[in-house]
Every structure is written in C-alpha cells, then in structure tokens.
C-alpha cells in the first residue's frame, strides 16, 4: 500500500526537474493524496474479487489463504482511507494559486508517518495491528 522507495523516486524526479521547469516559469509540486473513497476504489475491490488465480499459484496457496489475504488487503486499505477528496482539491488549489506554494503536499497524517518508517517497522505495525495477524501460506514439501 505505502511504497516508500517509490515515493522517494517520484519526489527525486520532481526535484530534479524543478530547476529546468523554473526557467520556463513552470512550478513543480508533488501532491500525495493517499487513499480516498472514490468509485475507483470500488472498482479495485471488484477486480480483486473477480481475479482468478493462475493454476500454478492455486497449487501452492489454498483458496482460504487467498480469500483471507484479499480481506486483509481490504481491511488495511479501509483503515487508512479518507472519506472524501476535499483535502486533495484544496492542495491542488493551493499549489496552483497560493502565494507561497509548497514543493510537497502530504495530505494524510498516516501517510506522513508511514513514509518515514523503515520497512521492518511497517511490517511489525501491519502484523500486530488490531484484528489479528496477516494470513500465512501453508508450507508444501
């Protein structure tokens, strides 16, 4: 869900392009909206539910594991979801028309915290979250 390396690469690309774009009067801003409740999210849930597992993966992972993992992903997503997109619109408006716009907008407090945590801390937080453990695949020998 939160890929800190991916976000860092996007941020570095924006910072790299900023001096080149500034020469033409173009400002560069990074807006990290997080996860918002939109119809796109519902489409993602429908696509995950309709996803058919390839035969080679179905042999290794039982159907119960896949169902538990889908519900786990949905629970984690629902835990960090924002109810509306007002903050995103406000950030866009401030980036475009603000007197002193920021170079980077992180809209969710959770995203700000999770982006700065190391991977082992993220794994620990997701494994020991309220509601139980992440489903584990069974070992096949």
From TrEMBL:
<protein>
    <submittedName>
        <fullName>Uncharacterized protein</fullName>
    </submittedName>
</protein>
<dbReference type="GO" id="GO:0016491">
    <property type="term" value="F:oxidoreductase activity"/>
</dbReference>
<dbReference type="GO" id="GO:0008202">
    <property type="term" value="P:steroid metabolic process"/>
</dbReference>
């Amino acid at each position: 869900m939160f890929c800190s390396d991916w976000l860092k690469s996007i941020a570095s690309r924006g910072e790299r392009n900023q001096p080149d774009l500034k020469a033409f009067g173009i400002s560069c801003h990074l807006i990290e909206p997080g996860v918002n409740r939109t119809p796109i999210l519902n489409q993602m849930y429908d696509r995950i539910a309709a996803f058919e597992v390839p035969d080679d993966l179905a042999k290794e992972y039982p159907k119960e594991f896949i169902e538990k993992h889908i519900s786990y992903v949905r629970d984690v997503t629902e835990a960090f979801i924002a109810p509306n997109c007002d903050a995103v619109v406000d950030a866009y408006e401030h980036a475009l028309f603000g007197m002193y716009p920021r170079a980077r907008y992180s809209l969710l407090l959770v995203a700000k915290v999770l982006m700065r945590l190391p991977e082992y801390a993220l794994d620990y937080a997701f494994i020991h979250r309220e509601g139980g453990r992440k489903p584990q695949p069974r070992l096949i020998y």
